[in-house]
Amino acid sequence: MSTHFSRRDMLRIGGAAAASTLCFPMLEASVRAWKRIPIGTQLWCVRKQLATEIPGTLQQLSKLGFDAVELENAFGKSGAEWRKHLDAAKLKACGFHHRLDELQGDKISATVEFNQAVGNRNLIIRSLPADVYKSGDLLKQTAEAVNEAAEKFKPHKMRVGYHNHTTDFNRIDGEYWWNLFADETSKDVILQLDTGNASEMAGVTVVDLIRRNAGRTISMHVKPYSKKNPDAYLGADELDWPAIMTAAESTGGIEWYIIEYEREGVPPLESLKANLDSYKKLRS
Hints:
Helix content: 40-55%
Order of helices and strands: HEHHEHEHEHEEEHEHHEHEH
Largest sheet: 8 strands, parallel, barrel
Radius of gyration: 23 Å
Low-confidence stretches: 1-32
Structural class: alpha/beta
Oligomer: single chain
Number of strands: 10
Mean pLDDT: 91
């Protein structure tokens, strides 16, 4: 049986074909836009569980779908013990939150030994004394100390970094402390951007920070922020996650996304799973 196509049919089919030629490559490019970035979580979120049960807690995090964890406390265990538990859970170490003094002087050897044992190369300074965020002179002194520490750990193939809190966005001579610190430190120093902490300061835009300090956001704490609903999970908060992740992957130099959720009242493993699921939906 022959099939007859009218002129209208031919135009419709031709238009559809043209549209598919134009749209499908764009759609494919959009799907390909996200890089394959491994995802970890900060063990601060499950510190209470780890205090009594390290192996089981790590196993649970692995089952949730995390690739790695960022340590902030050794809980009296050696690096070798932690490595045994991490390997059993098939998790990597993507960072350790240190005090600055643990990266200096006679404490360097112990810090190197622990991090080598767990297979971690990202040594992130968790915080600084409150006065440092109010003084340009103290900022410069601290930056010098951080640069010196970075040089000390470089032969061990480890990187020193710094993690922000809200006070990092105090202004000194009109500029954010965070940006001044970035300018005073070596390009080798990681600027671990905590999206939630940064967003607590009015006027701060995460995307602008990433772009301004290109190549320095090696790891990022993926933390939701909502003024209207402080308990909101990723995707239900007020941050523009597609824009943030695009900036991180195009100019930030991102190697690790680290999900963190610090709100009380929700079981931590439950909230981490909810945020990880939301993260995956944002990137689907």
